[in-house]
User: Fold this.
Amino acid sequence: MAQRTQVAIIGAGPAGLLLSQLLHVAGVDSIVLERRDQAYVESRIRAGVLEQGTVDLLERAGVADRLHAEGLPHNGFRLALDGELFRIDMRELTGGKSVTVYGQTEVTRDLIAAHQSRNAPLVFEAEDVSLHGLDGDALFVTYRRDGAEQRLDCDYVAGCDGFHGPSRAAIPAEVLRVYEREYPFGWLGILADVPPCDHELIYSNHARGFALASMRSPTRSRYYVQVPLDEKLADWPDERIWDELAIRLGEEAASRMTRGPSIEKSIAPLRSFVAEPMRHGRLFLAGDAAHIVPPTGAKGLNLAASDVAILAEALIRRYAHNSHEGLEGYSARALARVWKAERFSWWFTGLTHRFPDMDPFARRMQVAELSYIRDSAAAQRVVAENYVGLPLH
Ligand code: APR
Ligand code: PHB
Assistant:
């Protein structure tokens, strides 16, 4: 059976769902094709820090009510060097900007609820999604649902299918350029229904390795410890995680840490990755399909949002004013912001983590740079303006 829409969106993560909702609000039709089922998509534990630009987009999409009710505004965060804490006053240093702590899981749930409240065509369990006619006149996507082959004719395809999706792979190898850095460690994350150890986040550089104290609400904490790449989750019972967090976050934070059973625990690798261009013909990549950042700078979700802001504006201009200018300029404009966030995420990861091959000089450079940031308002302003999110140009 053939269907038709203006924009076929592959992937129902934050990028695909937010794009679909923004297009709908502007009267542009789309259909979202998601490989997994709704329960899987809504259960993924991911990021938790929203830049103001992302909050603004969610408001424009009409899905920010719960975010405003439950999201936690954060005006600063703390850095720790071997247990010594100091604060980055983002609000002061950026002329009033802040971030909002609100789980990506919640953002996804709010976006799915908005789709379902308007009976939007959001297709879960769409198997073998394939792109056809990218270079020709008749662009279409095929997929299988409940065993039946489907065809979706469209004007454009938005590849929002994440790092392992088919969209990036649809760009010819001779056209695609990739840039990559794999890090020699991973993050072990734990979610627990205990009060956070502080009302703001703490990023800690410790001789034993990086640790992060974050949260999802006043009663739900999210913590991470850096672990070697080949680490096994089975070797990290909750008690060992709490003990390591207490050491790495330092005595002051540890004294306020509440322990409790993990409700989720996982190890994720860290990677920097960018694919260029983010457009090929009538295929546009957005979010993790085009780029990955180490989570240190909390940029993954926010970059997906800024890609979508640029792409939605371009598609809306195309349909409202038959102007192709935004579509022509999409890749360059999105990549300009992507690379700056890649740099900040890479730099912040290098500053706060223990690298296996780190010699004493490299360690001294980390200590000196953190001490410089502690003592310099100029250095802190650089950190703050990147963390709250650079402007969309
Ligand atoms: N067909 C259809 N859907 C697919 C396919 C496919 N072949 N492959 C992947 N998908 C779906 C995935 O199941 C997932 O739901 O695409 C979606 C991609 O979502 P994300 O990976 O969350 O990527 P994105 O929407 O760009 O959001 C980026 O998510 O991974 C985190 O840290 C990342 O916070 C960042 C955010
Ligand atoms: C989180 O709360 O999951 C989180 C917060 C900040 C980061 C990464 C993850 O930099």
Summary: The longest helix spans residues 325-352.
